[in-house]
Amino acid sequence: MSEIVIKTDKLTKRFGDFIAANEITFKVNKGEIFGFLGANGAGKTTAMRMLCGLSIPSSGQATIAGFDVYKQTEQIKKNIGYMSQKFSLYEDLTVLENINFFGGIYGLTDKELKTKSAQLIDQLGLQLQAKKLVASLPLGWKQKLSFSVAVLHEPKIVFLDEPTGGVDPVTRRQFWDLIYDAADRGVTIFVTTHYMDEAEYCNRISIMVDGVIKALDTPRNLKDTFHANNMDEVFYELARSAKRSE
Amino acid sequence: MKQFLIFIKKEFAHVLRDRKTLLILFGMPVVQILIFGFALTNEVKNAKIVIMDQANDIASQQIISKIRASRYFEIAETIHSPQQIESAFKKGNIRLALIFPAQFNNNLMHQHLAQLQVIADASDPNNATTLTSYISSIIQDYATGIAKTSNIPYRISPEIRFLYNPQLKGAPNYVPGVMALVLMLVCVMMTAVSIVKEKETGTMEILLVSPFSPFKVIVSKAIPYLILSLVNVTSILLLSVFVLDLPINGSILLLFAESTLFIITCLTIGIFISVKTNTMQLAMLISLMGMMLPTILFSGFMFPIENMPVPLQVISNIIPAKWYYIIVKDIMIKGLGFSAFWKETLILVAITVVMMVISLKSFKIRLS
Protein backbone atom coordinates (compact mmCIF):
# COMPACT_ATOMS: atom_id res chain seq x y z
CA MET A 1 0.00 0.00 0.00
CA SER A 2 1.06 3.57 -0.55
CA GLU A 3 1.91 6.25 2.00
CA ILE A 4 -0.53 6.80 4.89
CA VAL A 5 -1.49 10.46 5.35
CA ILE A 6 -4.20 10.28 8.02
CA LYS A 7 -3.86 7.88 10.88
CA THR A 8 -6.02 7.89 14.00
CA ASP A 9 -5.92 5.60 16.98
CA LYS A 10 -8.82 5.60 19.46
CA LEU A 11 -9.36 9.31 18.89
CA THR A 12 -12.00 10.56 21.34
CA LYS A 13 -13.69 13.87 22.07
CA ARG A 14 -15.81 14.39 25.17
CA PHE A 15 -17.92 17.40 26.01
CA GLY A 16 -18.65 16.78 29.68
CA ASP A 17 -20.56 13.49 29.84
CA PHE A 18 -21.29 13.53 26.15
CA ILE A 19 -18.90 11.53 23.97
CA ALA A 20 -19.10 13.16 20.55
CA ALA A 21 -16.48 10.93 18.98
CA ASN A 22 -15.67 7.61 20.61
CA GLU A 23 -12.37 5.82 19.94
CA ILE A 24 -12.22 6.48 16.24
CA THR A 25 -9.53 4.44 14.51
CA PHE A 26 -8.80 4.49 10.79
CA LYS A 27 -6.13 5.15 8.15
CA VAL A 28 -6.33 7.04 4.90
CA ASN A 29 -3.83 6.61 2.07
CA LYS A 30 -2.30 9.24 -0.11
CA GLY A 31 -4.45 10.19 -3.11
CA GLU A 32 -7.45 8.35 -1.73
CA ILE A 33 -10.99 9.71 -1.76
CA PHE A 34 -12.27 8.87 1.69
CA GLY A 35 -15.98 9.28 2.36
CA PHE A 36 -16.94 10.08 5.93
CA LEU A 37 -20.63 9.33 6.37
CA GLY A 38 -23.04 9.55 9.25
CA ALA A 39 -26.42 10.92 10.22
CA ASN A 40 -26.71 14.42 11.60
CA GLY A 41 -25.25 14.49 15.10
CA ALA A 42 -23.24 11.29 14.59
CA GLY A 43 -20.00 13.14 15.35
CA LYS A 44 -18.60 13.71 11.87
CA THR A 45 -17.97 17.41 12.29
CA THR A 46 -16.35 16.91 15.69
CA ALA A 47 -14.02 14.28 14.25
CA MET A 48 -13.17 16.47 11.30
CA ARG A 49 -12.45 19.46 13.51
CA MET A 50 -10.00 17.38 15.51
CA LEU A 51 -8.25 16.28 12.34
CA CYS A 52 -7.95 19.88 11.13
CA GLY A 53 -6.40 21.06 14.36
CA LEU A 54 -9.44 23.18 15.26
CA SER A 55 -10.34 21.09 18.26
CA ILE A 56 -8.07 19.34 20.74
CA PRO A 57 -8.92 15.63 21.23
CA SER A 58 -9.79 14.40 24.74
CA SER A 59 -7.77 11.22 24.25
CA GLY A 60 -6.33 8.96 21.58
CA GLN A 61 -3.74 9.59 18.91
CA ALA A 62 -3.82 11.00 15.41
CA THR A 63 -1.29 12.13 12.85
CA ILE A 64 -2.15 14.21 9.80
CA ALA A 65 0.42 14.28 7.00
CA GLY A 66 2.84 12.92 9.59
CA PHE A 67 2.16 15.65 12.15
CA ASP A 68 0.71 15.15 15.60
CA VAL A 69 -2.72 16.71 16.26
CA TYR A 70 -1.75 17.72 19.78
CA LYS A 71 1.61 19.33 19.25
CA GLN A 72 1.99 20.19 15.60
CA THR A 73 -1.25 21.91 14.65
CA GLU A 74 0.65 24.69 12.92
CA GLN A 75 2.36 22.28 10.53
CA ILE A 76 -0.93 20.47 9.99
CA LYS A 77 -2.59 23.71 8.98
CA LYS A 78 0.06 24.34 6.35
CA ASN A 79 -0.55 20.94 4.80
CA ILE A 80 -4.32 20.81 4.64
CA GLY A 81 -7.09 22.56 2.79
CA TYR A 82 -10.59 22.95 4.16
CA MET A 83 -13.97 23.68 2.70
CA SER A 84 -17.01 23.92 4.93
CA GLN A 85 -20.66 23.21 4.25
CA LYS A 86 -21.40 26.91 4.36
CA PHE A 87 -20.19 28.82 1.36
CA SER A 88 -17.14 30.51 2.74
CA LEU A 89 -15.50 32.88 0.34
CA TYR A 90 -15.90 36.62 0.73
CA GLU A 91 -18.99 37.69 -1.18
CA ASP A 92 -17.94 41.32 -1.30
CA LEU A 93 -14.60 40.56 -2.90
CA THR A 94 -14.11 39.65 -6.55
CA VAL A 95 -13.16 36.16 -7.72
CA LEU A 96 -9.57 37.23 -8.25
CA GLU A 97 -9.35 39.03 -4.92
CA ASN A 98 -10.58 35.93 -3.12
CA ILE A 99 -7.99 33.78 -4.86
CA ASN A 100 -5.23 36.26 -4.06
CA PHE A 101 -6.33 36.63 -0.45
CA PHE A 102 -6.52 32.93 0.38
CA GLY A 103 -3.41 32.15 -1.65
CA GLY A 104 -1.69 35.02 0.12
CA ILE A 105 -2.42 33.92 3.66
CA TYR A 106 -1.07 30.46 2.76
CA GLY A 107 2.16 32.21 1.85
CA LEU A 108 2.13 31.87 -1.96
CA THR A 109 4.38 34.38 -3.70
CA ASP A 110 3.01 36.96 -6.11
CA LYS A 111 4.46 35.04 -9.03
CA GLU A 112 2.88 31.76 -7.94
CA LEU A 113 -0.41 33.53 -7.34
CA LYS A 114 -0.41 34.99 -10.82
CA THR A 115 0.11 31.69 -12.62
CA LYS A 116 -2.16 29.78 -10.27
CA SER A 117 -5.06 32.18 -10.43
CA ALA A 118 -4.85 32.30 -14.23
CA GLN A 119 -4.81 28.50 -14.31
CA LEU A 120 -7.73 28.23 -11.91
CA ILE A 121 -9.89 30.75 -13.71
CA ASP A 122 -9.16 28.96 -16.96
CA GLN A 123 -10.06 25.58 -15.52
CA LEU A 124 -13.37 26.82 -14.12
CA GLY A 125 -14.16 28.91 -17.19
CA LEU A 126 -14.54 32.04 -15.09
CA GLN A 127 -12.63 34.39 -17.42
CA LEU A 128 -15.57 36.77 -17.72
CA GLN A 129 -16.36 36.73 -14.01
CA ALA A 130 -12.83 37.11 -12.66
CA LYS A 131 -13.31 40.73 -11.76
CA LYS A 132 -16.88 40.43 -10.60
CA LEU A 133 -17.98 40.12 -7.00
CA VAL A 134 -18.37 36.55 -5.82
CA ALA A 135 -21.88 37.43 -4.62
CA SER A 136 -22.98 37.58 -8.27
CA LEU A 137 -22.04 33.96 -9.05
CA PRO A 138 -24.55 31.08 -8.97
CA LEU A 139 -24.19 28.72 -5.98
CA GLY A 140 -22.75 25.86 -8.02
CA TRP A 141 -19.94 28.01 -9.34
CA LYS A 142 -19.29 29.38 -5.91
CA GLN A 143 -18.82 25.87 -4.56
CA LYS A 144 -16.46 24.94 -7.38
CA LEU A 145 -14.49 28.12 -6.81
CA SER A 146 -14.47 27.40 -3.09
CA PHE A 147 -12.98 23.96 -3.69
CA SER A 148 -10.37 25.29 -6.11
CA VAL A 149 -9.35 27.90 -3.56
CA ALA A 150 -9.09 25.20 -0.87
CA VAL A 151 -6.55 23.26 -2.97
CA LEU A 152 -4.77 26.34 -4.34
CA HIS A 153 -1.77 25.95 -2.05
CA GLU A 154 -1.44 22.26 -3.03
CA PRO A 155 -2.23 20.75 0.35
CA LYS A 156 -1.55 17.08 1.04
CA ILE A 157 -5.07 16.57 2.30
CA VAL A 158 -8.25 18.49 1.69
CA PHE A 159 -11.18 18.23 4.08
CA LEU A 160 -14.61 18.80 2.52
CA ASP A 161 -17.55 19.18 4.89
CA GLU A 162 -20.73 18.48 2.90
CA PRO A 163 -19.39 20.44 -0.06
CA THR A 164 -22.33 19.86 -2.39
CA GLY A 165 -25.28 20.71 -0.16
CA GLY A 166 -27.97 22.47 -2.15
CA VAL A 167 -26.20 22.09 -5.48
CA ASP A 168 -27.95 20.71 -8.59
CA PRO A 169 -26.98 17.22 -9.88
CA VAL A 170 -25.16 18.48 -12.99
CA THR A 171 -22.99 20.84 -10.99
CA ARG A 172 -22.43 18.12 -8.42
CA ARG A 173 -21.10 15.89 -11.15
CA GLN A 174 -18.75 18.69 -12.29
CA PHE A 175 -17.72 19.22 -8.71
CA TRP A 176 -16.74 15.57 -8.44
CA ASP A 177 -14.69 15.93 -11.63
CA LEU A 178 -12.67 18.56 -9.78
CA ILE A 179 -12.27 16.19 -6.83
CA TYR A 180 -11.03 13.40 -9.12
CA ASP A 181 -8.57 15.80 -10.76
CA ALA A 182 -7.18 16.73 -7.38
CA ALA A 183 -6.96 13.09 -6.29
CA ASP A 184 -5.08 12.28 -9.50
CA ARG A 185 -2.54 14.92 -8.57
CA GLY A 186 -1.99 13.04 -5.30
CA VAL A 187 -4.19 15.14 -3.03
CA THR A 188 -5.99 13.08 -0.43
CA ILE A 189 -9.70 13.87 -0.23
CA PHE A 190 -11.57 13.53 3.05
CA VAL A 191 -15.22 14.23 2.36
CA THR A 192 -18.47 14.14 4.32
CA THR A 193 -21.75 13.92 2.47
CA HIS A 194 -25.41 13.03 2.82
CA TYR A 195 -25.78 12.07 -0.84
CA MET A 196 -25.46 8.32 -1.21
CA ASP A 197 -24.71 8.53 -4.92
CA GLU A 198 -21.67 10.58 -3.96
CA ALA A 199 -20.67 7.93 -1.46
CA GLU A 200 -20.36 5.54 -4.39
CA TYR A 201 -17.75 7.83 -5.95
CA CYS A 202 -15.42 7.39 -2.99
CA ASN A 203 -12.61 4.84 -2.87
CA ARG A 204 -13.50 3.90 0.68
CA ILE A 205 -16.14 5.06 3.09
CA SER A 206 -16.69 4.95 6.80
CA ILE A 207 -20.09 5.21 8.41
CA MET A 208 -20.35 6.78 11.83
CA VAL A 209 -23.25 6.10 14.20
CA ASP A 210 -23.50 7.72 17.64
CA GLY A 211 -19.86 8.74 17.70
CA VAL A 212 -18.55 5.32 16.70
CA ILE A 213 -17.35 4.12 13.30
CA LYS A 214 -19.73 1.23 12.54
CA ALA A 215 -18.39 0.28 9.12
CA LEU A 216 -15.35 1.07 7.00
CA ASP A 217 -14.68 -0.43 3.56
CA THR A 218 -15.01 0.13 -0.17
CA PRO A 219 -18.57 0.83 -1.32
CA ARG A 220 -18.68 -2.53 -3.10
CA ASN A 221 -17.57 -4.53 -0.09
CA LEU A 222 -20.02 -2.70 2.14
CA LYS A 223 -22.89 -3.54 -0.17
CA ASP A 224 -21.81 -7.18 -0.17
CA THR A 225 -21.47 -7.34 3.61
CA PHE A 226 -24.90 -5.87 4.20
CA HIS A 227 -26.52 -7.70 1.27
CA ALA A 228 -27.65 -4.36 -0.07
CA ASN A 229 -28.33 -3.18 -3.62
CA ASN A 230 -27.04 0.34 -3.04
CA MET A 231 -25.41 2.57 -0.46
CA ASP A 232 -28.77 3.97 0.58
CA GLU A 233 -29.72 0.59 2.02
CA VAL A 234 -26.36 0.16 3.72
CA PHE A 235 -26.65 3.54 5.33
CA TYR A 236 -30.22 2.99 6.41
CA GLU A 237 -29.37 -0.40 7.89
CA LEU A 238 -26.65 1.17 10.05
CA ALA A 239 -28.08 4.54 10.85
CA ARG A 240 -31.49 3.40 12.04
CA SER A 241 -29.89 1.94 15.16
CA ALA A 242 -28.79 5.45 16.11
CA LYS A 243 -30.06 6.64 19.46
CA ARG A 244 -29.10 10.25 19.21
CA SER A 245 -30.09 12.82 16.70
CA GLU A 246 -29.46 16.59 16.56
CA MET B 1 4.31 40.29 7.48
CA LYS B 2 3.18 40.02 3.89
CA GLN B 3 0.20 37.95 4.98
CA PHE B 4 -0.62 40.70 7.42
CA LEU B 5 -0.72 43.30 4.68
CA ILE B 6 -2.85 41.09 2.46
CA PHE B 7 -5.28 40.65 5.32
CA ILE B 8 -5.46 44.35 6.11
CA LYS B 9 -5.99 45.15 2.44
CA LYS B 10 -8.89 42.73 2.35
CA GLU B 11 -10.35 44.27 5.49
CA PHE B 12 -10.25 47.72 3.93
CA ALA B 13 -11.98 46.35 0.83
CA HIS B 14 -14.83 45.10 3.07
CA VAL B 15 -15.29 48.50 4.65
CA LEU B 16 -14.84 50.62 1.58
CA ARG B 17 -17.23 48.55 -0.53
CA ASP B 18 -20.05 48.66 1.94
CA ARG B 19 -21.69 52.02 1.37
CA LYS B 20 -23.90 51.80 4.44
CA THR B 21 -20.93 51.14 6.70
CA LEU B 22 -19.02 53.96 5.09
CA LEU B 23 -21.90 56.30 5.65
CA ILE B 24 -22.11 55.37 9.31
CA LEU B 25 -18.37 55.51 9.68
CA PHE B 26 -17.71 58.91 8.23
CA GLY B 27 -21.13 60.53 8.02
CA MET B 28 -22.16 59.99 11.62
CA PRO B 29 -19.34 61.95 13.31
CA VAL B 30 -19.87 64.89 10.98
CA VAL B 31 -23.62 64.88 11.50
CA GLN B 32 -23.29 64.52 15.25
CA ILE B 33 -20.77 67.32 15.57
CA LEU B 34 -22.90 69.61 13.43
CA ILE B 35 -26.12 68.74 15.19
CA PHE B 36 -24.63 69.16 18.63
CA GLY B 37 -22.72 72.23 17.56
CA PHE B 38 -25.46 74.14 15.82
CA ALA B 39 -28.24 72.97 18.07
CA LEU B 40 -26.40 74.68 20.89
CA THR B 41 -25.38 77.86 19.10
CA ASN B 42 -28.70 78.37 17.34
CA GLU B 43 -30.62 78.20 20.56
CA VAL B 44 -28.46 80.83 22.14
CA LYS B 45 -28.39 83.15 19.17
CA ASN B 46 -31.35 85.51 18.92
CA ALA B 47 -33.03 84.39 22.11
CA LYS B 48 -36.20 86.40 22.66
CA ILE B 49 -36.30 88.47 25.82
CA VAL B 50 -38.58 91.08 27.39
CA ILE B 51 -37.46 94.17 29.21
CA MET B 52 -39.26 96.10 31.91
CA ASP B 53 -37.56 99.41 32.33
CA GLN B 54 -38.90 101.20 35.41
CA ALA B 55 -35.95 103.57 35.49
CA ASN B 56 -35.82 104.71 31.90
CA ASP B 57 -32.64 106.64 32.53
CA ILE B 58 -29.30 106.89 30.81
CA ALA B 59 -27.76 103.75 32.36
CA SER B 60 -30.70 101.50 31.63
CA GLN B 61 -30.97 102.83 28.07
CA GLN B 62 -27.28 102.21 27.43
CA ILE B 63 -27.48 98.65 28.73
CA ILE B 64 -30.57 98.00 26.62
CA SER B 65 -28.87 99.22 23.49
CA LYS B 66 -25.84 97.03 24.26
CA ILE B 67 -28.18 94.05 24.57
CA ARG B 68 -29.96 95.00 21.38
CA ALA B 69 -26.59 95.13 19.59
CA SER B 70 -25.58 91.66 20.76
CA ARG B 71 -26.35 88.78 18.44
CA TYR B 72 -27.43 86.59 21.31
CA PHE B 73 -30.59 88.47 22.19
CA GLU B 74 -33.59 89.85 20.46
CA ILE B 75 -35.82 92.17 22.45
CA ALA B 76 -39.33 90.97 21.78
CA GLU B 77 -41.20 93.61 23.68
CA THR B 78 -40.92 96.25 26.35
CA ILE B 79 -43.37 95.80 29.17
CA HIS B 80 -44.60 97.99 31.97
CA SER B 81 -46.06 95.83 34.70
CA PRO B 82 -44.90 92.74 36.60
CA GLN B 83 -48.05 90.89 35.52
CA GLN B 84 -46.93 91.15 31.93
CA ILE B 85 -43.72 89.27 32.73
CA GLU B 86 -45.64 86.18 33.69
CA SER B 87 -47.89 86.31 30.69
CA ALA B 88 -44.85 86.82 28.43
CA PHE B 89 -43.20 83.67 29.79
CA LYS B 90 -46.43 81.75 29.41
CA LYS B 91 -46.40 82.43 25.70
CA GLY B 92 -43.42 80.12 25.66
CA ASN B 93 -41.04 81.78 23.27
CA ILE B 94 -39.63 84.27 25.78
CA ARG B 95 -36.46 82.96 27.39
CA LEU B 96 -35.55 85.76 29.74
CA ALA B 97 -36.87 88.91 31.39
CA LEU B 98 -34.71 91.83 32.48
CA ILE B 99 -36.09 94.28 35.06
CA PHE B 100 -34.51 97.64 35.83
CA PRO B 101 -35.75 99.13 39.11
CA ALA B 102 -36.65 102.78 39.32
CA GLN B 103 -33.71 105.00 40.26
CA PHE B 104 -31.31 102.61 38.55
CA ASN B 105 -28.91 105.29 37.35
CA ASN B 106 -29.31 107.22 40.55
CA ASN B 107 -28.29 104.27 42.66
CA LEU B 108 -25.38 103.58 40.40
CA MET B 109 -24.11 107.11 40.47
CA HIS B 110 -24.57 107.81 44.17
CA GLN B 111 -24.22 104.48 45.90
CA HIS B 112 -21.94 103.04 43.21
CA LEU B 113 -24.03 99.94 43.35
CA ALA B 114 -27.17 99.26 41.41
CA GLN B 115 -29.28 96.13 41.31
CA LEU B 116 -31.36 94.69 38.56
CA GLN B 117 -33.29 91.50 38.19
CA VAL B 118 -32.87 88.73 35.63
CA ILE B 119 -35.57 86.09 35.40
CA ALA B 120 -34.85 83.11 33.19
CA ASP B 121 -37.10 80.38 31.89
CA ALA B 122 -35.41 77.42 33.54
CA SER B 123 -37.55 74.75 31.98
CA ASP B 124 -34.49 74.23 29.84
CA PRO B 125 -31.80 74.67 32.48
CA ASN B 126 -28.81 74.48 30.15
CA ASN B 127 -30.17 77.19 27.98
CA ALA B 128 -31.12 79.35 30.92
CA THR B 129 -27.62 79.07 32.34
CA THR B 130 -25.99 80.09 29.12
CA LEU B 131 -28.33 83.03 28.56
CA THR B 132 -28.01 84.45 32.06
CA SER B 133 -24.24 84.22 31.92
CA TYR B 134 -24.29 86.06 28.60
CA ILE B 135 -26.53 88.81 29.87
CA SER B 136 -24.55 89.14 33.09
CA SER B 137 -21.37 89.59 31.14
CA ILE B 138 -22.96 92.31 29.00
CA ILE B 139 -24.05 94.14 32.15
CA GLN B 140 -20.67 93.62 33.78
CA ASP B 141 -19.02 94.91 30.66
CA TYR B 142 -21.05 98.10 30.89
CA ALA B 143 -20.17 98.55 34.56
CA THR B 144 -16.42 98.14 33.99
CA GLY B 145 -16.73 100.52 31.06
CA ILE B 146 -18.09 103.41 33.10
CA ALA B 147 -15.86 102.55 36.06
CA LYS B 148 -12.76 102.93 33.88
CA THR B 149 -13.62 106.42 32.69
CA SER B 150 -14.46 107.80 36.11
CA ASN B 151 -12.19 105.84 38.46
CA ILE B 152 -15.12 105.06 40.71
CA PRO B 153 -15.77 101.33 41.24
CA TYR B 154 -19.33 101.24 39.92
CA ARG B 155 -20.96 97.92 40.43
CA ILE B 156 -24.14 96.52 39.05
CA SER B 157 -25.26 93.31 40.62
CA PRO B 158 -27.79 91.31 38.61
CA GLU B 159 -30.04 89.25 40.79
CA ILE B 160 -30.60 86.05 38.91
CA ARG B 161 -33.61 83.92 39.60
CA PHE B 162 -33.66 80.26 38.63
CA LEU B 163 -32.01 77.00 39.56
CA TYR B 164 -28.37 77.31 38.68
CA ASN B 165 -26.68 74.24 37.32
CA PRO B 166 -22.94 74.66 37.88
CA GLN B 167 -22.01 71.67 35.71
CA LEU B 168 -23.01 73.36 32.48
CA LYS B 169 -20.70 76.30 32.40
CA GLY B 170 -18.84 75.58 29.22
CA ALA B 171 -20.73 75.08 26.00
CA PRO B 172 -17.87 73.30 24.17
CA ASN B 173 -18.23 70.21 26.34
CA TYR B 174 -19.99 68.33 23.62
CA VAL B 175 -17.00 68.01 21.27
CA PRO B 176 -15.04 65.74 23.65
CA GLY B 177 -18.31 63.96 24.38
CA VAL B 178 -19.08 63.35 20.73
CA MET B 179 -15.52 62.14 20.20
CA ALA B 180 -15.89 59.57 22.95
CA LEU B 181 -19.28 58.53 21.62
CA VAL B 182 -18.22 58.20 18.00
CA LEU B 183 -15.04 56.29 18.77
CA MET B 184 -16.95 53.98 21.06
CA LEU B 185 -19.52 53.30 18.37
CA VAL B 186 -17.09 52.90 15.49
CA CYS B 187 -14.52 50.81 17.31
CA VAL B 188 -16.69 48.60 19.47
CA MET B 189 -19.57 47.98 17.12
CA MET B 190 -17.69 47.86 13.84
CA THR B 191 -14.97 45.53 15.11
CA ALA B 192 -17.41 43.26 16.87
CA VAL B 193 -19.69 43.09 13.84
CA SER B 194 -16.88 42.54 11.35
CA ILE B 195 -15.45 39.62 13.33
CA VAL B 196 -18.83 38.06 14.05
CA LYS B 197 -19.72 38.44 10.38
CA GLU B 198 -16.84 36.15 9.50
CA LYS B 199 -18.11 33.66 12.04
CA GLU B 200 -21.60 33.83 10.58
CA THR B 201 -20.56 33.43 6.97
CA GLY B 202 -18.16 30.61 7.84
CA THR B 203 -15.05 32.36 6.59
CA MET B 204 -13.70 32.46 10.15
CA GLU B 205 -13.46 28.68 10.11
CA ILE B 206 -11.44 28.82 6.91
CA LEU B 207 -9.14 31.39 8.48
CA LEU B 208 -8.69 29.29 11.61
CA VAL B 209 -7.78 26.24 9.52
CA SER B 210 -5.20 28.29 7.64
CA PRO B 211 -1.67 28.80 8.99
CA PHE B 212 -2.58 32.40 9.74
CA SER B 213 -2.82 32.34 13.55
CA PRO B 214 -6.03 33.40 15.34
CA PHE B 215 -4.14 36.13 17.16
CA LYS B 216 -3.03 37.60 13.85
CA VAL B 217 -6.57 37.37 12.51
CA ILE B 218 -7.80 39.47 15.42
CA VAL B 219 -5.01 42.01 15.19
CA SER B 220 -5.37 42.49 11.46
CA LYS B 221 -9.13 42.87 11.85
CA ALA B 222 -8.57 45.63 14.39
CA ILE B 223 -5.90 47.63 12.54
CA PRO B 224 -8.15 49.02 9.77
CA TYR B 225 -10.59 50.30 12.38
CA LEU B 226 -7.75 51.91 14.29
CA ILE B 227 -6.76 53.80 11.15
CA LEU B 228 -10.34 54.71 10.24
CA SER B 229 -10.99 55.93 13.77
CA LEU B 230 -7.95 58.19 13.65
CA VAL B 231 -9.36 59.61 10.42
CA ASN B 232 -12.58 60.24 12.33
CA VAL B 233 -10.76 61.95 15.19
CA THR B 234 -9.07 64.19 12.65
CA SER B 235 -12.32 65.10 10.93
CA ILE B 236 -14.06 65.85 14.23
CA LEU B 237 -11.18 68.08 15.30
CA LEU B 238 -11.11 69.87 11.95
CA LEU B 239 -14.85 70.47 12.19
CA SER B 240 -14.66 71.76 15.72
CA VAL B 241 -11.78 74.12 14.92
CA PHE B 242 -12.92 75.45 11.56
CA VAL B 243 -16.69 75.17 11.67
CA LEU B 244 -17.48 75.54 15.35
CA ASP B 245 -14.59 77.90 16.19
CA LEU B 246 -13.53 75.76 19.09
CA PRO B 247 -9.75 75.87 19.31
CA ILE B 248 -7.56 73.09 20.65
CA ASN B 249 -5.79 74.70 23.57
CA GLY B 250 -3.40 71.86 24.43
CA SER B 251 -1.01 69.65 22.51
CA ILE B 252 -2.49 68.08 19.38
CA LEU B 253 0.08 65.31 19.50
CA LEU B 254 -0.95 64.42 23.04
CA LEU B 255 -4.60 64.50 22.00
CA PHE B 256 -3.91 62.00 19.22
CA ALA B 257 -1.83 59.79 21.50
CA GLU B 258 -4.62 59.65 24.09
CA SER B 259 -7.20 59.08 21.36
CA THR B 260 -5.17 56.16 20.04
CA LEU B 261 -5.12 54.69 23.53
CA PHE B 262 -8.89 55.06 23.85
CA ILE B 263 -9.39 53.56 20.38
CA ILE B 264 -7.35 50.53 21.41
CA THR B 265 -9.46 50.23 24.56
CA CYS B 266 -12.61 50.24 22.44
CA LEU B 267 -11.16 47.76 19.95
CA THR B 268 -10.40 45.27 22.73
CA ILE B 269 -13.98 45.64 23.99
CA GLY B 270 -15.23 45.04 20.44
CA ILE B 271 -13.07 41.95 20.16
CA PHE B 272 -14.37 40.72 23.50
CA ILE B 273 -17.98 41.10 22.35
CA SER B 274 -17.19 39.30 19.10
CA VAL B 275 -15.63 36.38 20.95
CA LYS B 276 -18.71 36.01 23.13
CA THR B 277 -21.40 36.30 20.45
CA ASN B 278 -22.25 34.38 17.32
CA THR B 279 -24.65 36.56 15.40
CA MET B 280 -24.27 40.05 14.02
CA GLN B 281 -27.57 41.17 15.50
CA LEU B 282 -26.53 40.13 18.99
CA ALA B 283 -23.13 41.77 18.59
CA MET B 284 -24.79 44.97 17.48
CA LEU B 285 -27.32 44.88 20.28
CA ILE B 286 -24.68 44.32 22.95
CA SER B 287 -22.52 47.06 21.49
CA LEU B 288 -25.40 49.49 21.49
CA MET B 289 -27.04 48.64 24.78
CA GLY B 290 -23.96 47.53 26.64
CA MET B 291 -21.60 50.21 25.41
CA MET B 292 -23.40 53.18 23.91
CA LEU B 293 -25.92 53.57 26.67
CA PRO B 294 -23.40 53.52 29.54
CA THR B 295 -21.19 55.85 27.54
CA ILE B 296 -23.99 58.39 27.19
CA LEU B 297 -25.15 57.95 30.78
CA PHE B 298 -21.90 57.67 32.66
CA SER B 299 -19.28 59.60 30.77
CA GLY B 300 -20.37 62.88 32.30
CA PHE B 301 -20.99 64.27 28.85
CA MET B 302 -24.75 64.59 29.14
CA PHE B 303 -25.48 64.00 32.80
CA PRO B 304 -23.23 65.28 35.57
CA ILE B 305 -21.78 62.34 37.47
CA GLU B 306 -21.50 64.38 40.69
CA ASN B 307 -25.29 64.56 40.92
CA MET B 308 -25.76 60.80 40.64
CA PRO B 309 -26.40 58.44 43.58
CA VAL B 310 -23.18 56.95 44.95
CA PRO B 311 -23.66 53.42 43.49
CA LEU B 312 -23.99 54.91 40.01
CA GLN B 313 -20.94 57.08 40.60
CA VAL B 314 -19.00 53.93 41.43
CA ILE B 315 -20.25 52.22 38.28
CA SER B 316 -19.23 55.19 36.17
CA ASN B 317 -15.60 54.47 37.04
CA ILE B 318 -15.46 51.37 34.85
CA ILE B 319 -16.72 53.25 31.80
CA PRO B 320 -13.64 53.99 29.66
CA ALA B 321 -15.39 56.91 27.94
CA LYS B 322 -15.58 58.77 31.25
CA TRP B 323 -11.81 58.88 31.53
CA TYR B 324 -11.28 59.70 27.90
CA TYR B 325 -13.83 62.49 28.16
CA ILE B 326 -11.95 64.01 31.10
CA ILE B 327 -8.64 63.75 29.25
CA VAL B 328 -9.94 65.34 26.04
CA LYS B 329 -11.59 68.16 27.98
CA ASP B 330 -8.32 68.78 29.81
CA ILE B 331 -6.34 68.96 26.58
CA MET B 332 -8.79 70.69 24.28
CA ILE B 333 -10.53 73.15 26.56
CA LYS B 334 -8.24 73.65 29.52
CA GLY B 335 -5.02 73.22 27.56
CA LEU B 336 -3.43 71.10 30.27
CA GLY B 337 -0.41 68.82 29.91
CA PHE B 338 0.14 65.15 30.67
CA SER B 339 0.81 65.72 34.38
CA ALA B 340 -2.83 66.76 34.80
CA PHE B 341 -4.30 63.48 33.62
CA TRP B 342 -1.70 60.77 34.00
CA LYS B 343 -4.01 59.04 36.46
CA GLU B 344 -6.87 58.92 33.96
CA THR B 345 -4.45 57.64 31.31
CA LEU B 346 -3.25 54.93 33.66
CA ILE B 347 -6.84 53.84 34.33
CA LEU B 348 -7.50 53.59 30.58
CA VAL B 349 -4.35 51.52 30.13
CA ALA B 350 -5.44 49.23 32.95
CA ILE B 351 -8.93 48.73 31.48
CA THR B 352 -7.37 47.96 28.09
CA VAL B 353 -4.94 45.40 29.47
CA VAL B 354 -7.65 43.65 31.47
CA MET B 355 -10.03 43.51 28.47
CA MET B 356 -7.23 42.26 26.23
CA VAL B 357 -6.29 39.45 28.59
CA ILE B 358 -9.93 38.40 29.04
CA SER B 359 -10.72 38.40 25.33
CA LEU B 360 -7.56 36.56 24.33
CA LYS B 361 -8.27 33.96 26.98
CA SER B 362 -11.85 33.40 25.91
CA PHE B 363 -10.77 33.32 22.30
CA LYS B 364 -8.49 30.40 23.11
CA ILE B 365 -11.19 28.61 25.07
CA ARG B 366 -13.49 28.86 22.10
CA LEU B 367 -10.94 27.18 19.90
CA SER B 368 -10.43 24.03 21.97
Give a count of the beta strands of chain A, DSSP E runs of length 2 or more.
10
Low-confidence stretches of chain A: none
Mean pLDDT of chain A: 89
Broad structural category of chain A = alpha/beta
Strand order of the largest sheet of chain A: 6-7-8-3-9-10
Total helical segments of chain B: 14
Largest interface: A-B, 30 and 23 residues
Radius of gyration of chain A: 18 Å
CATH topology of chain A: Rossmann fold
The N- to C-terminal Cα distance of chain B equals: 26 Å
Key terms for this structure?
heterodimer, A: 246 residues, alpha/beta, Rossmann fold, six-stranded mixed beta sheet, four-stranded antiparallel beta sheet, 9 helices, 26% strand, B: 368 residues, abc type-2 transporter like fold, 2 domains, five-stranded mixed beta sheet, 14 helices
Tell me what the structure shows.
The complex is a heterodimer of chains A (246) and B (368). Chain A is globular and about 50 Å long. In chain A, a hairpin with a 2-residue loop joins strand 4 (59-64) and strand 5. Chain A is built from nine helices and ten strands. Chain A has 246 residues and is an alpha/beta fold. The termini of chain A are far apart. Chain B folds into two domains: 47-163, abc type-2 transporter like fold (3-Layer(aba) Sandwich); 171-362, no CATH class. Chain B has a five-stranded mixed sheet, with helices on both faces. In chain B, strand 4 (113-120), helix 6 (125-150) and strand 5 (155-161) form a beta-alpha-beta unit. In chain B, helix 7 (174-201) packs across helix 13 (320-332) and helix 9 packs across helix 10. Chain B is elongated and about 90 Å long. At the A-B interface, helix 2, strand 6 and helix 3 of A face helix 1 and helix 8 of B.
